[in-house]
Specification:
There is one protein chain. The protein has seven helices and 17 strands. The protein is an alpha+beta fold and 302 residues long. It folds into two domains: 2-122, D-amino Acid Aminotransferase, Chain A, domain 1, CATH 3.30.470.10; 135-288, D-amino Acid Aminotransferase, subunit A, domain 2 (D-amino Acid Aminotransferase, Chain A, domain 2). Strands 8, 9, 10, 11, 12, 13, 14, 15 and 16 form a nine-stranded mixed sheet that branches. Strands 1, 2, 3, 4, 5, 6, 7 and 17 form an eight-stranded antiparallel sheet that branches. A hairpin with a 2-residue loop joins strand 1 and strand 2. Helix 2 (52-65) packs across helix 3 (74-87). It is globular and about 55 Å long. The chain starts with 5 loop residues before the first strand and ends with a strand.
């Protein structure tokens, strides 16, 4: 599918196989790219892009943090996403806007180096494959980066080296995914997901001060929960609270809503998806396909 598809590359739609860069490209060598992840859903009124404008806003904000001149407005980028999805005739899947220094000169400096922007749109299923019923997690020995080291609220390629270390460590131990702590020792997030805890009928999630990425799906879940009458708290979470939570789940563009059934080989509750997680997952799914009123502005139809 991908090899027969198209990529938007510096303002033009080119065949997937023709979207190439040199082996010495700066962002390949130094991890200096920035990106977004957007879901396309097969909705009742056609293909729908979930919170497209919010993703483009974060993409532009990340570029400002890293002083990367994209050369395109938010609207131009949003239009390019629509064009790419439409050209690929994608009914549902994953869209990856990516900006990088397309320059072969060796050296850390980026001043004067060319910035390229590419957008790919590919089929994409469940992030955790056959683990839709829930996953097992391990608290990582690798701490989440913080603003004294790198900007955690920027969605930048290099940041994810930290995430990869944590995720691979967890998988090597027999778990499905990692949970990372902040430098202060509080729960932060997963390697590529935000985390939520249900305790005493309240939905709790780490605050921005826990060095999290401000996830767009995270924001969606908070708003959906509030619309359901669920009390939401943003507060610091101690590691040991994970072990006694009524429910835990990840949220993210790729992960959507993924139940966590155990942490550090401690089973949570009955070992099955809890009622609050189930409610929020079902409601999220209905919203993304245009089958629930009140959140229509989150969807951009082709």
């Amino acid at each position: 599918m991908e090899e027969k598809g198209y990529v938007w590359f510096d303002g033009k739609l080119v065949r997937f196989a023709d979207a190439k860069v040199h082996i010495l490209t700066h962002s390949l060598q130094y991890g200096s790219g920035i990106f977004e992840g957007i879901r396309a859903y097969k909705a009742k009124s056609g293909t729908a892009l979930f919170r497209l404008e919010d993703h483009m806003e974060r993409f532009v904000c990340t570029s400002k943090i890293y002083r990367m001149e994209l050369g395109y407005t938010k609207k131009q980028l949003a239009d390019a996403v629509v064009d790419t999805v439409r050209k690929n005739r994608l009914e549902s899947g994953y869209i990856r806007p990516f900006a990088f220094y397309n320059d072969t000169r060796i050296g850390l400096g980026v001043s004067g180096k060319k910035v390229s922007v590419a957008i790919a749109a590919v089929p994409f299923g469940s992030y955790f494959g056959g683990k839709a019923k829930g996953i097992q997690c391990k608290v990582s020995s690798w701490k989440r980066i913080n603003s004294e080291i790198m900007p955690p609220q920027a969605k930048a390629s290099g940041n994810y080296r930290n995430s990869i270390l944590a995720s691979e460590e967890a998988k090597d131990s027999g778990a499905d995914e990692a949970i990372m702590l902040s430098a202060g020792g509080f729960v932060a997030e997963g390697p590529g997901e935000n985390i939520f805890m249900v305790k005493d009928n309240r939905l709790v999630t780490p605050p921005p001060s826990a060095d999290i990425l401000l996830g767009i799906t995270r924001d969606s879940i908070i708003k959906i929960a509030e619309s359901c009458g669920i009390i939401v708290q943003e507060r610091e979470i101690h590691r040991e609270e994970l072990y006694t939570a009524d429910e835990l789940f990840f949220s993210g563009t790729a992960a959507e809503v993924t139940p966590i059934l155990g942490v550090d080989w401690r089973q949570l509750g009955s070992g099955k998806t809890g009622p609050v997680t189930k409610l929020l997952s079902e409601r999220f799914s209905l919203i993304t396909t245009g089958d629930w009123e009140g959140f229509e502005d989150w969807l951009t139809y082709l």
